[in-house]
């Protein structure tokens, strides 16, 4: 019985060994087939077809955009300088007012009366001075003859000097009264857009009444932004002389609005801060920008674009040639011998000619723009004729 059991075990081991050999044979066959298939694209006749374009070198003005804010060159609170009842308002809220335009009228009656009284005081003082001068002249003539004493002569002289002083005081009071009267007409100190009024006709105004309305200038405006210390040196702002010129013409300023449109008028640099902010590590910079169409308003967010006026050569490639993976942006080149090569690149700004490549490419390189989905690094490729619109 034991003999038969051992035979059965031997038969089972033999079957297992045969099955293992069969599995190994099948696996080897699959590996060989797989290796043969992976080698097929390397054959010259099976190389993928790609479309290439040479890189383009264009003249480019380096630029950079910063988030900024529009500020008014002039921004003032209109207040009352004298006490009186508001008689009339002469503007429409929100309109553009011109420099010197009448805004408010305060009831002038009491101030006109003060002016009249001051004029009368001046007339009285003038008459007194005239009389005192006549008495003094007579005293001067009589003193040498001994007809008056020295003390009487001194008294006449003092009266003449006192009358002259009183006249000057009366004139000062008249000037003050006239100034107060002029304050009853509140005018615009400069041309700009006026806000809503905070007071109504009949209100009692005084110097403690606060702001009656506000006025801001709109042409030109300031565009304020911040830039790093490295960028300050890059654009040469360390040489700025504060003369209102845009860094001696080396840079120009343009503004992009939130809707993507560009402000039609260029600006110039007119202020560079005198210290780096220790918290942010940035420098305050400001540009003066014409705003004849009043499209820019104080407080508005804008993108300030600083561009160098000196053009520099830049390598440009089609945007469709750029790929991105975990290592960053890269392109595939067709090198000598039609071998595909990966090249990591650092991209710049998009231009009408294509995207600028800061580093990674040379003037004689050719980038693959079509058939990229079948290309791998080191793979042989076939070059097809470039078309106006090459499909990926």
Automatic annotation (TrEMBL):
Subcellular location: Cell inner membrane
Gene3D superfamilies attached to this UniProt entry: 2.40.30.170, 2.40.420.20, 2.40.50.100, Helix hairpin bin (1.10.287.470)
Positions of the Multidrug resistance protein MdtA-like beta-barrel domain: 225-307
Record's GO cellular component terms: cell envelope; plasma membrane
Domain Multidrug resistance protein MdtA-like alpha-helical hairpin stretches: 115-184
Gene Ontology biological-process entries: response to antibiotic
UniProt membrane topology term: Lipid-anchor
Coiled-coil boundaries: 115-142
UniProt cross-references to InterPro entries, sorted A to Z: MdtA-like_b-barrel (IPR058626), MdtA-like_BSH (IPR058625), MdtA-like_C (IPR058627), MdtA-like_HH (IPR058624), RND_pump_MFP (IPR006143)
Origin: domain of life: Bacteria
Domain Multidrug resistance protein MdtA-like C-terminal permuted SH3: 314-374
GO molecular function ontology, one term from the record: transmembrane transporter activity
PANTHER family: ACRA/E-RELATED COMPONENT OF DRUG EFFLUX TRANSPORTER, CATION EFFLUX PUMP
NCBIfam families for the chain: RND_mfp
Family membership noted in the UniProt record: Belongs to the membrane fusion protein (MFP) (TC 8.A.1) family.
Protein name: MexE family multidrug efflux RND transporter periplasmic adaptor subunit
Natural source organism: Vibrio comitans NBRC 102076
